[in-house]
Amino acid sequence: MTVTPRLNRLFAPDGKCFDVAVDHGFFGERSFLDGIEDMHAVVQTLVDARPDAIQLSIGQAPILQAIKGKDKPALVLRTDIANVYGKTLPRYLYSSMIGDPVEQALRLDAACVVVNLFNLPDQPEIYRQCIDNIARLKPQCERYGMPLMIEPLVMRDNAQAGGYMVDGDIDKILPTVRQAIELGADIIKADPTDNIEEYHRVIEVAAGKPVLVRGGGRVSDEEILQRTYAVMQQGAKGIVYGRNVVQHANPAGMTRALMAIVHDGATPQEAARYLEAGHAARPS
């Protein structure tokens, strides 16, 4: 079954997408809750700012889908839960799927499901778990016409990085992205590279599938706007940002600023105006 109808709901008519990730509470890390303690308020703020999609867990997705009207953002449903994000890794690492993920996504009227492909140093078991998760999920997605977003996540050594830290080494990112494509990804959600000017190589290795760039940890406004502009100029089809939006002092303004870069080709300087108090909202 074709995934096009739901992809058309996820991506704007220009073929671009800004997905705001607010699924962080799923992973059981206290620091991930900063800025998203009151999920009803967070979701309403984001809906009012009008990104293309909001990424949620099965427990929080009903907050979005209970909002009336046809113009709210599409739902991207997180389908896996893992324990790899803490400063000290537990004795046993896992990445587990929720039950009947595609059926639950259909019941929640999701436009897409997302699953991780973790690449952690010296942790082949969790890599294998992720591949098994994807191998089980892909046929279900195909059967029901549900787009599959795979998140190839290359992480640094926990002891050296002091907790959840991504690895921007392009020579690690490229094969992990390509493996996600080979496993059947309809959409790739990938980290930025250390040298952001090389990001076109990630786009190339994705073999024509849309690449949405992860936001990762909180950075300065200038850095996130500059980075977003750089990856969009190199062919990215959008972004998936969480903490750089919901932990911002002005989440609505940051959403509008990023939407302007993604959809209107605004420069970082032009987009920064949306962060100013009282600036008009980006036209719909």
Question: Which helices and strands occur, and which strands form pairs?
Answer:
Layout: H1 4-10, E1 17-21, H2 39-49, E2 53-56, H3 61-65, E3 74-78, E4 80-82, E5 95-97, H4 101-107, E6 112-119, H5 124-144, E7 148-154, H6 158-161, H7 170-182, E8 187-190, H8 199-205, E9 211-214, H9 221-233, E10 238-241, H10 243-246, H11 251-264, H12 268-272
Parallel strand pairs: 1-2, 1-10, 2-3, 3-6, 6-7, 7-8, 8-9, 9-10
Antiparallel strand pairs: 4-5
Could you characterize what this model shows?
By secondary structure, this protein is α/β, with parallel strands linked by helices. The protein has a single domain, classed as TIM Barrel (Alpha-Beta Barrel), CATH 3.20.20. 39% of the residues lie in helices and 17% in strands. The strands form 2 sheets. An 8-stranded parallel beta barrel has the order 1-2-3-6-7-8-9-10, surrounded by 7 helices. Strands 4-5 form a two-stranded antiparallel ribbon. α3 links the parallel β2 and β3. The mean pLDDT is 92.
